[in-house]
Write a structure and sequence with these properties.
300 residues; eight-stranded mixed β-sheet; three-stranded mixed β-sheet; Aspartokinase; EC 2.7.2.4
């Protein structure tokens, strides 16, 4: 059992999404996999701007921004290479998601942090649809799963924490039957839902946390966090030529790096996996053959 999470850069356009689908297909030939997907790069920030525009009653600007987001996702769909009926079905599904969001935004008297979480969750819903479609094109049996039906959270909107016991029950009910049938679940990252069903996001970069929560709930052997870097370095390799690659590190060391601002990991991502000693890998989507960095209890 592997939980594979793909970050925003990994699904940044249609060609990259097809590449991700091929990676998933390769891994699924040997292991059961659950895929967690982030929003396309830049999309969450754009949805934040849309929320602010509607909150400030700048409806015209908000509509323009939503139109740009729609075009970005249709462009990615075009790059997937579908034809005729299948293309129109996916395009209709994209349009329906934007229609739902516009309806939600248009009939609000006030906009709260709860509304913010609901709006920004659409980035993952859209990217998951595209990844699901790409895998279907490769003849993979997949199913979209909304993480609001899986991850039960606290009421801390904007930076919620997972309630692991409740989440484990939901995952067993929804995801396990799919895996038993040989289906690849495609799960929205970044958010869950409170006990009363309201969308709650897990903080920026929260898809890492989503992946480790699911690993805990499914007793997975490994989590692979697919990013645009080869693994973890002593410093940002894009800024410092002397940055050293770290092939292995402990949970404690990884957690400290995250708490000290290393953007490679979500600060809460370690917590669910430590008790079950689940291995985390940081790997490069664009160099999948490179081994990456391993986070596990074997390092002190």
């Amino acid at each position: 059992m592997k939980i594979m999470k793909f970050g925003g850069t990994s699904v940044g356009d249609g060609k990259k999404i097809l590449h991700v689908a091929k990676i998933v297909k390769d891994y699924s030939e040997e292991d059961r996999v659950v895929v967690v997907v982030s929003a396309m790069s830049g999309v969450t920030d754009k949805f934040i701007s849309v929320f602010k525009m509607f909150k400030e009653r700048q409806h015209s600007s908000g509509l323009i921004a939503l139109g740009e987001l729609y075009e970005k996702h249709v462009l990615a769909l075009n790059e997937l290479g579908f034809k005729n009926g299948r293309y129109l079905t996916i395009q209709s599904n994209l349009r329906n998601l934007f229609g739902e969001l516009l309806t939600y935004l248009s009939f609000k008297d006030e906009y709260t942090v709860k509304d913010y979480d609901h709006v920004v969750s659409y980035g993952e819903r859209l990217s998951c649809l595209l990844v699901y479609s790409a895998l279907s094109k490769l003849d993979q049996d997949t199913e979209l799963v909304d993480s609001a039906k899986l991850i039960v959270t606290t009421n801390d909107f904007g930076n919620a924490k997972a309630l692991l016991a409740e989440t484990e029950k939901q995952v067993s009910r929804v995801v396990l039957p799919l895996l038993i049938k040989g289906v690849i679940p495609i799960v929205t990252g970044f958010y869950g839902a409170t006990k009363d069903g309201r969308i709650a996001t897990l903080g920026r970069g929260g898809s890492d946390y989503s992946a480790t929560i699911l690993a805990y709930a499914l007793d997975a052997q490994e989590v692979i966090l697919w990013k645009e870097v080869d693994g973890i370095y002593s410093a940002d390799p894009k800024r410092e030529n002397g940055a050293k690659f770290i092939p292995e590190l402990s949970y404690r060391m990884a957690a400290e790096l995250a708490r000290n601002g290393a953007k490679i990991l979500h600060p809460e991502a370690m917590e669910p996996v430590i008790s079950k000693k689940i291995v985390i890998w940081i790997k490069n989507t664009f160099q999948p053959e490179f081994i990456g960095s391993k986070i596990w209890e074997g390092r002190k």
